[in-house]
Design brief:
The chain is mainly beta and 129 residues long. It has one helix spanning 6-9; strands spanning 15-17, 21-27, 36-42, 48-51, 56-63, 66-70, 76-79, 84-86, 92-97, 101-108. A 6-stranded antiparallel sheet has the order 1-2-3-10-5-8, with no helix packed on it. The protein has a 4-stranded antiparallel sheet with strand order 4-9-6-7, with no helix packed on it. The mean pLDDT is 91.
Length: 129
């Protein structure tokens, strides 16, 4: 059984901070459970474009509001608490938070915590030994 608090993740190498978001990676590939689990806050008034070409991501909003655009179709969605979006087709997308936007995210395959978005917004596929 794994029991872990956000306080244990704060200010470790699993607490990733950028100009537009902060992601605390609570469960990672090294835990060997087949997925990773993160709490992420995207900051109000920012814009982040992403493309998880190597991962499926589920994002469940627990606080705030954001517009998510499918960059491939132009379709836009307003995401509020209790709403999720699932990037089951590896869609390129852009998130524009209207307020600080707190979400819980699940990745498959799991991320290691060492991934960095490349110039296309893609996480490389890193396999944990």
């Amino acid at each position: 059984m794994i029991v872990r608090s956000l306080d244990e993740v704060n200010d470790t190498d699993a607490d990733i901070k950028t100009e537009t978001w902060r992601s605390r990676r609570i469960v990672l590939a090294k835990d060997k459970v087949g997925f990773s689990f993160h709490e992420t806050v995207l900051y109000a008034g920012t814009e982040t474009s992403m493309w998880y070409a190597n991962h499926i991501e589920l994002v469940h909003c627990i606080e705030g509001e954001a517009e998510v655009t499918n960059d491939e179709t132009g379709e836009k969605h307003i995401i509020t608490p209790g709403t999720l979006y699932l990037l089951n087709g590896h869609e390129k997308h852009t998130v524009r938070p209207k307020t600080d936007f707190r979400v819980l995210c699940v990745f498959n395959p799991p991320v290691t915590g060492r991934e960095v978005h490349d110039e296309n917004g893609v996480y490389p596929l890193i396999v944990e030994d």
